[in-house]
Amino acid sequence: MKLQKETKRGKSATDGEKARAHGRWYGDACGAAFAMELIGERWAIPIIREMMLGARRFGEIRAELPGLSAKTLTERLESLEETGIVRRETLPPPASVQVYRLTEWGLALEPVMQELGRWAVRSTLHDPTLPITPVSLMLSMRTMIVAQRIGDLRLTAALAVGDKHFTALLGPGELAIHPAAEGDPAPDLRFSAEAGLPFLAAFYGKRASETVGLRIEGDPALAQKFIDLFSLPPKCAS
Asked: Which member of 33, 48, 101, 223 lies 3.0 to 4.6 Å from 28 by CB, making a disulfide possible if both were Cys?
């Protein structure tokens, strides 16, 4: 007798769950192929990226991704929720608003996305002048810091991209970044710009901050040491 596919609730799988079963695109047992079935739809990766530093409202995600329609965002969030990558929750009063948050499994995608990012920017086709969202910039900095250069350098930096504010904590071998909050340590350095591109030009392009619109407050020598920690991988041979 043919067995029915069971859901985690012990019920028969719905048509939607069957459509998202492993093998729906490729019919292949490969884990990498299955990963693409889970997160390979258009807009899925940018949506996941925007939740990597914390829960976001529907409108916040859409505002950061202006090319994304409300319909597509709804569909992708529903799909990511069904597969266990995202969960929907309501914040406690007085906010009492609905937000979307990555699950523990969803957050585990960050190192995967970091490796994809390091791999992709080696292409000569990568265009670093395209817009970058504040969260994407912060994740980029966590990705492109060269840990071996940190040594005994320790500092706290306030990073402002437009009206979005973040706190960066440089520790042994790593850079932690989170949305700025009350109780964060007083920063040793402050970096601010109206958009992400001035950060990219200064941190990766090594252009003088005053020429690209990046404002820096704090010890100039310490700021330069911090900037020097970041580097893009070399381009691949053509």
From this structure: 33
